[in-house]
Amino acid sequence: MVILEKRVNGVAATELNRFVRRAQALAKVVGEVGVLIAGNARVQELNRRFRRKNKPTDVLSFPRAEGGDIAISIDIARQNARLYGHRAADELKVLILHGMLHLAGYDHERDNGHMAAKETRLRAQLKLPSSLIDRTNSRATPDAQSPAGTKLQSAQFTKRKSRGSKSPVRQASTRKHRSRP
């Protein structure tokens, strides 16, 4: 399920839903996956709540025993698309794939390049522009920042919410219109 809290010109929810299903199958993520496309303020709220970092970021992943949720800042995605010379739809797909690999259990900060290699293979298979990890690793310094002033990396979470509480994407679906394939 993809929830578009903020509309993106030239990007249809049906196209993103198809891509989510394809990326989920390729990453071998079992269970339901929700993707929230929101503005910087909403992603900053989630980042502050779950990571105690009071700033927006490009992509957040919330794994569950089966499946999980991904939250993406469309504001940062648009800026990165312009910076790297591709469509916002392609940038969203890069971020969805990256988040999906986190849901599959990969962690580029600790896995000695396994996630980067998998992401590179899948990105080529899906005909996507350079991956998030490739761009981060190509920067001159580890603290290089994207145009939005955030580190060009995603955040992966362990569950910090109590049993029965709604996930970030489920919470958004109760407030905004849901888009299903």
Explained architecture:
The chain is an alpha/beta fold and 181 residues long. The protein has one domain (2-175): Metalloproteases ("zincins"), catalytic domain (Collagenase (Catalytic Domain)). It contains 7 helices and 5 strands, in the order E-H-E-H-E-E-H-H-H-H-E-H. It has helices spanning 13-27, 40-51, 74-84, 88-103, 114-125, 132-138, 168-175; strands at 2-4, 33-38, 59-63, 68-73, 155-156. The relative contact order is 0.21. The model is unreliable at 139-165 and 173-181 (pLDDT under 50).
Top-tier CATH class: Alpha Beta
Distance between the termini: 8 Å
CATH topology: Collagenase (Catalytic Domain)
Q: What name goes with the CATH superfamily? A: Metalloproteases ("zincins"), catalytic domain
Assign an overall shape.
Answer: globular
Number of beta strands: 5
Strand-pairing-aware structural class: alpha/beta
Q: How much beta, percentage-wise?
A: 5-15%
How many alpha or pi helices?
A: 7
Using the CA coordinates, give the radius of gyration: 15 Å
CATH architecture descriptor name? 3-Layer(aba) Sandwich
